[in-house]
Specification:
The chain is an alpha/beta fold. Helices cover 21% and strands 22% of the residues. It has one domain: Ribonuclease Z/Hydroxyacylglutathione hydrolase-like (Metallo-beta-lactamase, Chain A), CATH 3.60.15. The protein starts with a strand and ends in a 24-residue tail after the last strand.
Length: 389
């Protein structure tokens, strides 16, 4: 199977599936936003749950699964539908015969998430039932890891912690902890030859003033995925995704990586926070007469390789005051590359389908289109060795 990256049309939300070209046909699902309208057969909203299920394999018991589910942060538009469509709990309690009219729930063999993100988010707003359920499941898996000393952790129980927790709460979890700045290539308990990842965020606990800024800007899990097309092309697509990370985060990433820009390179970028202006500027467009783009934040997001694409997972982008998605932000991205796609406009504004990129030897290929030359080009990144043991 060819490697692919599929962006599901979920309005202003994220739901992205990475399908790897390996013997296991490994799938990594980043966030989920399955709204009630998408589940309603009488509504013309794209049935993204059905589209997802078409792309998943089943195990020997006929249960659908993703190898990894990544939660960038626990906002509603990144975890809606989790309880309705995904299995939470011990696999021995899985119901093989669901009630009439319901489908088998999707197993998450492994989950990746940062406890720091959840703590920052919970101080600003009340978590939804889906977010609370995810946090409970993450705690269950961590508890099991501690009790078993990391031995004999099976499908449905695995977890990787992305970023260090506060107050030394990560002690004893070193085997499943990936710190900011580290790279790793273990997916669902196995070393992968089809992908490796670099963790760029969230940042560890900062001083009080910085923490206020990071909470305000939705400090999300930020990962640079290096995806192989085949054995001969191990770095065919570098995919950068950062949830709802806003301007303060990207400024800090530029400060940390402006001399090591390979760490920010991409062939495919998921525009953070659904193409919001607040990713690129701290100036309010409604309160400021002449809002300015922050040069450092834009530099961090401008490390596009030749032929790079930027995708906005959002509603259609209008030239009005809406934010997100913001038309002015789109215009800034178009100065980085002319290859810009929006899930709310594919294939058109009235009818939406998943936007699927095939990962070929020369990079990501969108459906039915040829790659254009970007206005900013950079150098591809070579594969790095594993840095997390």
């Amino acid at each position: 199977m060819s490697a692919k990256i599929t962006f599901f049309p979920v309005a202003n939300g994220d739901m992205t599936l990475i399908s790897l070209n390996d013997n296991d046909d490994t799938n990594i699902l980043i966030d989920v936003n399955i709204r009630a309208a998408a589940d309603n057969p009488d509504d013309d909203t794209c049935d993204v749950a059905a589209e997802l299920r078409k792309r998943l394999k089943t195990d020997s018991s006929g249960r659908p699964y993703v190898d990894v589910f990544v939660l960038s942060h626990p906002d509603k538009d990144h975890c809606t539908g989790l309880c309705n469509h995904f299995y939470l709990g011990k696999l021995e309690d899985y119901v093989d015969e669901p009630p009439e009219g319901e489908e088998k729930k999707i197993i998450m063999r492994e989950i990746w998430s940062s406890p720091m993100v959840s703590r920052r988010a919970s101080k600003n707003h009340t978590l939804t039932d889906d977010a609370k359920a995810f946090n409970s499941e993450a705690r269950r898996r961590v508890k099991l890891y501690r009790e078993n000393n990391g031995i004999n952790i099976n499908d449905g129980d695995r977890i990787l912690i992305i970023g260090e927790d506060e107050d030394q709460k990560s002690e004893g979890l070193e085997g499943i902890l990936i710190k900011q700045g580290e790279t790793f290539d273990t997916i669902n308990g196995k070393r992968s030859t089809a992908a490796w990842m670099r963790v760029l965020g969230p940042f560890p606990l900062q001083d009080e003033e910085t923490e206020t800024t990071l909470r305000k800007n939705h400090s999300s899990v930020i990962i640079q995925y290096h995806i192989a097309a085949d054995d001969s092309n191990p770095d065919a697509c570098i995919f950068l995704t950062g949830g709802d990370a806003e301007v303060a985060i990207w400024k800090k990433l530029w400060e940390n990586h402006k001399t090591t820009t390979d760490n920010l390179k991409y062939d495919l970028l998921l525009a953070p926070h659904h193409c919001s202006w607040h990713v690129l500027s701290s100036d309010s467009r409604s309160k400021c007469d002449d809002p300015k783009v922050d040069a450092d934040a834009k530099n961090a997001l401008s490390q596009a390789n030749e032929g790079a694409f930027i995708v906005s997972s959002s509603k259609a982008i209008k030239d009005d005051e809406t934010d997100p998605p913001c038309h002015a932000a789109k215009e800034e991205y178009l100065t980085i590359t002319s290859n810009f796609e929006c899930t709310g406009e594919y294939p058109n504004e009235k009818s939406h389908e998943p936007l699927e990129f095939l990962i070929a030897a020369d990079g990501p290929q969108p459906p039915g289109k040829k790659k254009a030359t970007p206005k900013v080009a950079a150098i591809a990144v070579a594969r790095e060795p594993l840095s997390h043991g």
